[in-house]
């Protein structure tokens, strides 16, 4: 599985190997109704959005405003290396290994979900939003491909719906896995 190349800035090397795709099995316990335990073999892959950011269009920022040494360039796009996202991304592999213990929520896009609430380096609870999509895996070694589209700490300036926080609807992680595997549309809870 291909790793992201390291990022160098002002003589400091930022290793990104923690974001190399990896396999993870999630085991859904047997139910009291006699439903057997179910194992989902997943491949988890990360995007550059887990450690980079886009331009702040609200503030009129463009790439030309950004020091070229901070630009992270791929074949698809150029983004800005984000030291905060990078630091917090070190938790992502473990968070994803344990995601079945957390609540997932629908976002505005039907194929993306998020999980939140981690402790930052200062011991403070913060909203770490992890947006991911699921599809049936193409490899016979895996059942479901989980792609982390983006992950970042939600800053205090964020306002949804003109200042009121949108109430997100939870969905079970095993529901997401099962429905993806059997090609069943995942319905947004009402």
Automatic annotation (TrEMBL):
This is Uncharacterized protein. It comes from Neisseria polysaccharea.
